[in-house]
């Protein structure tokens, strides 16, 4: 079921420019405008942004195109503080430290960590796309949140598919400390509504179907809050990677200053060979025909 944020190809394509010969709008942007002595971001002079906005407000403006309300800015600010760091659990942090140990450059090391970020490392995008789809279905079919959750869980179980936003390798029994805190704070600040309630309904239905506690992970909780703020999932996925970049920066610099150059994984730390035992290539020269 399509949603307003479904990723589709734009109407413009290279063929129309080649055919018409008119390249006047080939490169265009609604984000900023710059010429000599003048920079506008979303229409606002950069001087006013520097003087009058917080970093959170400025980033919202850059991404969403309009200034946030005080409530939106406050909730967006909370979202930026959620990920922080969790030692070496994140593959992005490990990738950063490996790269830093070899390159000795924090910039390339952080870039390596960014490239290791994605769905498996906690992107909110899959859960956001699911929640937007579920909310559209609920409205079009005149369903309750509980009915929508029931159908969604049943369909995923029938296809043997995991539901994004749930489960964590360490935080079990329904408690992921960051996620629990985010939900509480979002509710206190009025940032928990339709999509958050849908997420809770899905959790309840999953627990009923599985007969055990099910944890909403941080990506799932962040997804619900971003959906209630009407964010594009593509934006949220990128923000998650950039936001964790602060932690990756800390890891990169610590590795360069206090780490081990050219890190390896010895067998004592779990490197295990699972290929064939030692073997040798037969001497085929004697059997070759002249």
Question: Would you kindly provide a brief summary of this structure?
Answer:
With 290 residues, the chain is mostly helical. The protein has helices at 14-20, 46-52, 55-64, 70-80, 91-103, 106-115, 125-140, 145-158, 177-188, 194-210, 218-228, 233-258, and strands spanning 32-35, 38-41, 44-45.
In words, what does this structure look like?
Strands 1-2-3 form a three-stranded antiparallel β-sheet. The chain is globular and about 75 Å long. It is 53% helix and 3% strand. The chain contains twelve helices and three strands; from the N terminus they run αβββααααααααααα.
Any descriptors?
290 residues; mainly alpha; Cytochrome p450-Terp, domain 2; 2 domains; 3-stranded antiparallel β-sheet; 12 helices; 3 strands
Radius of gyration based on Cα positions: 25 Å
Largest sheet: 3 strands, antiparallel
Instruction: Determine the structural class based on helices, strands and strand pairing.
Output: mainly alpha
Proportion of helical residues: 40-55%
Supply the CATH superfamily name of the largest domain: Cytochrome P450-Terp, domain 2
CATH class descriptor of the largest domain: Mainly Alpha
For the secondary structure, the number of strands is 3
Mean pLDDT equals 91
Count of runs of 4 or more consecutive helical residues: 12
Low confidence ranges? none
Global geometry = globular
What's the arrangement of strands in the largest beta sheet? Answer: 1-2-3
Q: Find the CATH topology of the largest domain.
A: Cytochrome p450-Terp, domain 2
**DSSP strand content:** under 5%
Tell me the distance between the termini.
Answer: 67 Å
Order of helices and strands: HEEEHHHHHHHHHHH
User: What is the domain total for the residues?
Assistant: 2
The CATH architecture term of the largest domain is Orthogonal Bundle
